[in-house]
Amino acid sequence: MTPLQLVAAISSIANEGVYMRPFVVKYVKDNQDQIIASFEPQVVDRVISVNTANRIKEILKGVVAEGTGRRAQIDGMQVAGKTGTARKVIDGKYSRGKYYASFMGFAPADNPRLAAVVVVDQPHPSYYGGTVSAPVFQEVMDNALKYLKVTE
């Protein structure tokens, strides 16, 4: 999976089971600062029920509150997320000693505003998603939420 596919998947959980078409650019301006093209969120489909999405969200909140994703915690805000540690495939075989460390999540957990995925290719010396990628997620997400003036 690509990072964009991962963030789209976790966003479906944040959106109570609704898959939204991913987009990267919100608008394009010309040299007179006029918006010449804009892009809005578009619903694609319901991929899981509201009940299932909310159950998964509770599990993801637990990953951050008391599991492997503790380093993604943001002071004063609940975060939902999942760590990942994967061996790289090289020449068709799982490598020894080469990894991807990842963390994907969203915040605030109960009223999501932002979702993000952090993937580190061949981290060293530690290679666990909770150790390597979760702190990066925490710092980026905390700063982005402060910029947007999101408090919970």
Which secondary structure elements does this structure contain, and how are they paired or packed?
Elements: H1 3-14, E1 18-20, E2 27-29, E3 35-38, E4 43-46, H2 50-66, E5 80-90, E6 93-107, E7 114-121, H3 129-147
Antiparallel strand pairs: 1-4, 2-3, 5-6, 6-7
Write up this protein:
With 152 residues, the protein is α+β, with helices and mostly antiparallel strands. The protein has a single domain, classed as DD-peptidase/beta-lactamase superfamily (Beta-lactamase, 3-Layer(aba) Sandwich). The chain contains 3 helices and 7 strands; from the N terminus they run H-E-E-E-E-H-E-E-E-H. The strands form 3 sheets. It has a 3-stranded antiparallel β-sheet with strand order 5-6-7. It has a two-stranded antiparallel sheet with strand order 1-4. Strand 2 and strand 3 form a beta hairpin. The model has no long low-confidence stretch (mean pLDDT 95).
CATH topology grouping: Beta-lactamase
Uncertain stretches:
none
**Superfamily (CATH H level) name:** DD-peptidase/beta-lactamase superfamily
Number of helices: 3
Order of helices and strands: HEEEEHEEEH
CATH class: Alpha Beta
Mean pLDDT level: 95
Largest sheet: 3 strands, antiparallel
Walk across the major sheet and give the strand order: 5-6-7
- Strand fraction equals 25-35%
Known CATH architecture: 3-Layer(aba) Sandwich
Q: How many domains, in number, for the residues?
A: 1
Determine the fraction of residues in helical runs and give it as a percent range: 25-40%
Molecular shape: globular
Gyration radius, in Å: 17 Å
